[in-house]
Write the structure tokens for this entry.
Amino acid sequence: MKGILKLSEAASMGYHALAVLAGSSNRFHTAGEISKMICGSEAHLAKVMRRLVRAGLASSTRGPGGGFKIARPASEITLLDIYEAIEGRFETADCMMDHPCCKENNCIMGSLIRSVNLEVFEFFRSRKLSDFAESCILGEETS
């Protein structure tokens, strides 16, 4: 992944898998089908899908014709819901370090880290899966 903002592969897979499922909410897809659509590892996706099922964002069924489908309308699922299902609670920070090396808000990065974290949080909180699912039809971008 390029750029300064990094999301885990698991979070990226969760976003893409749910976008695929939202684009075909009337049928189940196996982890194998979804992994091919999003060009990811089937084994890793299966773990991600279990987290999404536990969070109530996807549902699953076993057996022939089984697999995964979206559990709620895409218009009711925020990007923050997906992120937190995969990564846990979104936490903002004032510094890149996990220990207090910067004294009294005198971080080498100034307020950049906090403002970027808050901007990403607001983006995730305000965007719905439905805002993106329509551009993802069975894992292929439309032109």
Notes: The helical segments are 9-23, 31-38, 42-54, 79-87, 112-126, 130-133. The first helix runs from residue 9 to 23.
